[in-house]
């Protein structure tokens, strides 16, 4: 059966741009120029007779048509990649216990884990939320993905991703009190996932200081702070790894272009004497391939 499909290169340009919400980052991934990606997106929009992107508050966001198209295009590319990988993929199975910081687990790892399961259908996963490398003292834990400074000398530590922070909120907040400039965050409730240091760093980078009259809520972790923001309860600090999906879907928006480096990063941590079973090694390799594919943590 012959299918009438849009041209492949414009679809690749659209999918990469939609993942990154950035033409610049898509161009870097595809190893082409910024103008080439823009041209391919225009070509696709003309072929489909719709607008796939719109710009709001200094950031690129998907249109309703773009949101509808992205899952189909991403899924098609994923199935092609999985099929190609499966041609030469060695069999690996068994159990693997993964300890992972809660926000990364729920907002990034769980949405992506199906591709690992398709590659390794014999694998059985146990996923435990947490952010303490000492969990590795439990021999049943195979790998830990932690948020921290990476200084854990008794363990094998690999940098998974640096993190950059920026304010995010539900779109409804823009229809209420002003949120046009960085100082306007003081018109809203600031949602913290720590003791306040990350917000203080972002404010300082924008020439501001925390005011005593600012309303603030402190939550146990980034996942809860972002969930509170998604319900319109205030402004949280999203990051360049875990916030990508909510921004691409339009559930959340980033009202400012300003980003600041987080004090900590995400790390893959293992025991030095773990030996590394085939399935654990496969999972760690998959983690790094996923973070490269999402790539939103990279520089502007």
From TrEMBL:
The protein, known as: LysR family transcriptional regulator
Transmembrane segments: none
Matching PROSITE patterns: HTH_LYSR
Domain HTH lysR-type, first and last residues per copy: 6-63
Keywords recorded for this protein, A-Z: DNA-binding, Transcription, Transcription regulation
Domain of life the protein comes from: Bacteria
Similarity section: Belongs to the LysR transcriptional regulatory family.
Keyword DNA damage: no
The organism of origin for this protein: Rhodovulum sulfidophilum (Rhodobacter sulfidophilus)
Listed PANTHER family: HTH-TYPE TRANSCRIPTIONAL REGULATOR, HTH-TYPE TRANSCRIPTIONAL REGULATOR TRPI
GO biological process, one term: DNA-templated transcription
Gene Ontology MF: a single term: sequence-specific DNA binding
